[in-house]
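assembly run, all chains below
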Amino acid sequence: MLPQTRRTPAGAAVLRGDITEAIQNAVVEELAAVGYGRLSIEAVARRAGVAKTAVYRRWSSKLELVLEIVSGVASQKLSLPDMGSLPGDLTLFLTILTKALRHPLASQIIPDLLAEAARNPQIAETLQQALRNTQHEMGVLVIQRAVARGELPAGTDPVLALDLLVGPVYWHLAVARHPLPNDYVPRLAKAIAAGLRG
Amino acid sequence: MLPQTRRTPAGAAVLRGDITEAIQNAVVEELAAVGYGRLSIEAVARRAGVAKTAVYRRWSSKLELVLEIVSGVASQKLSLPDMGSLPGDLTLFLTILTKALRHPLASQIIPDLLAEAARNPQIAETLQQALRNTQHEMGVLVIQRAVARGELPAGTDPVLALDLLVGPVYWHLAVARHPLPNDYVPRLAKAIAAGLRG
Amino acid sequence: MLPQTRRTPAGAAVLRGDITEAIQNAVVEELAAVGYGRLSIEAVARRAGVAKTAVYRRWSSKLELVLEIVSGVASQKLSLPDMGSLPGDLTLFLTILTKALRHPLASQIIPDLLAEAARNPQIAETLQQALRNTQHEMGVLVIQRAVARGELPAGTDPVLALDLLVGPVYWHLAVARHPLPNDYVPRLAKAIAAGLRG
Amino acid sequence: MLPQTRRTPAGAAVLRGDITEAIQNAVVEELAAVGYGRLSIEAVARRAGVAKTAVYRRWSSKLELVLEIVSGVASQKLSLPDMGSLPGDLTLFLTILTKALRHPLASQIIPDLLAEAARNPQIAETLQQALRNTQHEMGVLVIQRAVARGELPAGTDPVLALDLLVGPVYWHLAVARHPLPNDYVPRLAKAIAAGLRG
DNA sequence: TTCTAATCGAGACGGTACGTCCCGTCTTGCC
DNA sequence: GGCAAGACGGGACGTACCGTCTCGATTAGAA
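ok done. output:
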């Protein structure tokens, strides 16, 4: 039996149940293209090859639409393997972080959502949770391991440590928007390790 | 002699020539309120208590409007007095930076413009220049002084140093949007100094 | 089954499909109020309680809008029952004419459209057609009947006759804007009959 | 001594005191071109090659501007020489009337002012006076002479007579906008004389 | 001759309407 | 019942004029 199909005027055939997925993909692309502020259900539906009613039947506003997608990403708790030493853990963490921040969609969408979070508490809260489930947990884990190994003093402030870990890379990539120079990650890892120790 | 005034139908009296200023203030407020993407000339004019034509007579698009304002801020080259030692210079720099980033309008507008810069090269370029004239120059100055004093090795990378200087604070305040804990600035200054030294 | 309705934000319920009619009524009222020259689509939409787009979806200019309405009136070909004698026919004709010209909207709109016709050929043409379908055909009919009855000579010029029939009433009501004195219609009918007979 | 001149940027030299006259000419031309409803002081000033302030210093509104011009025309009381017989007087009167109504500016402006009079009492009043000073007085004179000569009965209604005199010509020229056929005036005069007599 | 007052142009101001383009909402009718 | 199609009200666009108002320059006549 053939899967049920629908035909758009352009002739494209889309699997029936894939409408939800098509919309969500379209949302991500639209977010990257025009940002949250200019994102419109109309454009999302157009990009997904779907009628507006199909979108509104699933989500009642563009806020809901975006939050559900961000939440989906945020809920993936990441784990960080133990590399045996603070510099090793730092290097791995920074490598993962730089890779994530260099992903084209992420680098377009994240600053936009952060900006929107400045005026929309629901987006802010969802993003905080996403941060907590990713960078925060991973970063704290790195610090705890280093303290346990005796590489860092017991009173090391995880908040300050996290700022030192994530801030420079975020600033360099997402704000200053420069490419990473050679050996950036290991040199940064070394500096952070020294900074936290001293 | 009284200054010449104009009277709006509503009876408000506005100093002539202040129209330009009123518009620019309105732009800043609108940017903070709704962001660049949703900023409309119509709303700016309304908030400034001015006719749309008065805006279009001065700027031909909302991009020009915003760029001129950002450029205005960016052109104020700041100087940093020499505090005599690296920790002193770092503390002063971080104090200025945290104060700037905690300004309500700045904390609303900067992330928005950064997000917009991801898809608008002109905004990106203008922001880069603004950064260069402020954080960048000040930060490099701090490093050069420390090298001259022998507090840092001659080969210290100013790029990495700047990322360490600005990144954590920006991340903490503008991204994570948390208040600064006690003694944050001196502790961060100490950690950065240690990190840069070795 | 109840008729389908739409609800405006103000709560008014308007029958679907009546939008076209509401717009046309508004056009007539606006024409009477401010004339063709100052008629604006915006005001029409406002008066009709309808969005501007709803107007532009139907007509592309105020000229089209007005022409369609005038054409609508013009297309109603009127017939004139035979009263059996020239004075009778004349009286009936003049009665119908005076009634039409005393209608408040007509007396406001007709002079305005005539004035506009002096500089707009399309309006002029449409009005000519309207005249032909109403006064002209009826008037010629009256003359033909009288000739057939032997009340008027065979060579009676219908053009001159029509001018005598319509001109005085139009002048009195629409130009001089005076009310009709007592017995005006029968006295005028008698004079015209005598005049045509020679 | 040369007359004092002023120079416009375009280089045209205009006699100083002629500004008033230039404006009034421009008003007449604008009235004919766009009608009262769309007439604007701005366009008048432009056509006259004069600044808007020069107009507003003399008249406070376009109504005043137009009324003064119309009044100027209206104040010229016309007299009609006695041709010795009713047909002769009628023919002369109709000849003058048709000549006036065929003047290009008149045929453009009169219908427009009549239309405007339907919604502006001041214009209506001024026009009535103009009519009274021209057609009305002349027409009544024709009737009175004919009564005195015994060509018309004593009880002849001057109002009805005037409608018969002016209406057909106005209708034919200004409303139906047709050219006058051959012998129109004498044939019309004959018909009117017969109509009034019988 | 200098001053003052009037008048000129030029043009910025607030405002209204233009005709267009999207948008979110809602209804309809096909499948 | 879900879907597309599309009309609806609404809002902003950027433009074009308009009447009002202010300005600086030029002129004319009085001091």
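Chain A has a mean pLDDT of 87.

Residues 6, 40-43, 52-53, 56, 61 of chain A lie near DNA strand E (CB under 10 Å from a C1').

not gonna interpret more than that til we talk
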